[in-house]
Amino acid sequence: MTAATASTAAFATARLIGSSASKLKPPSTFLSFRGNLGSSFPMRISSIRWARFSTVPKISATISVGDKLPDATLSYFDAADDLQTITISEITANKKTILFAVPGAFTPTCSQKHLPGFVEKAADLKAKGIDTIACISVNDAFVMKAWKEDLKIGDEVLLLSDGNGHFTKAIGCELDLSDKPVGLGVRSSRYAMLVEDGVIKILNLEEGGAFNVSSAEDLLNAI
Amino acid sequence: MAPIAVGDVIPDGTLAYFDAEDQLQSVSIHSLVAGKRAVLFAVPGAFTPTCSLKHVPGFVEKSPELKSKGVQEVICISVNDPFVMKAWAKTFPENEHVKFLADGSGVYTKALGLELDLSEKGLGIRSKRFALLVDDLKVTVANIEAGGEFTVSSAEDILKALV
What we know:
heterodimer
């Protein structure tokens, strides 16, 4: 594992388990491109690290603003408790969709801030023309359903399982958290994107599990 | 790895859990059960129906009886991360003895030779359902299902074997 990846993974893990290391919040500069830039070069964001980390981890994905999202199949349990599948193209075709991803169901930042933020702002986002808000995680559909029930979420946000991580891999947003002791395996890094008719218009990527640019407010301000 | 069998010594491995103070801990299986009589049972997935409605409740209910027969540890293992295991354990508020341990990356399950490929169902590699009775690290009863079915690995099956 390269030093950059190791420090990113370590930082991401610290953020997830809410340890004291996570109090070192790195100031980061980020750019969120609006759709009309139409550029296709990969977005690189450098963030200044404090103290211990001497390398500059990069946030990367294989997609960028202006790209059409690759198709993939995600799953969820419907209101009747039946397992359903849905594709990325079904969620995004001819619609304005927000897709955001979390590293793990039931983990602190995801449960206490990221997902609740979108539930809270769902009405505001829909008032701005958003048709669907979906949360994606590399967890199975049973866990996503239990998480949804635990947080008492209704129709505001769809919780979708990328159980085998195929979609996450297709967009290059894997986050390797296989190191002990947490044992989360390969998950998704945190992000939030606005997609119009399958094309990415806004893409806010985090470094691992950090929570700086991918909140509901960030998207609300950008739309 | 060949599947674990009666007469084998269980491999050592590190599993994770959140303790009563919500701190992430890791524990070696050997340190937990060496010198003791223990039941190790595994489920394919936290929050899945059979696991949640039958397998775990059976052990929660029968653990006092297992204890009266000399079982000192009742351990539930799943290839889920410790956050999920903690949330799942909370759904069994009446539980007193069963410890929920996370084999997040499936390493221990692989060491036991008991992996179950559920990638087609979007669950990745999980554990087969099983229940082992272990005496000072040696397997004395190995009730292993072929997959996720529930025919031989219940608490009652282990109790019968303890008679």
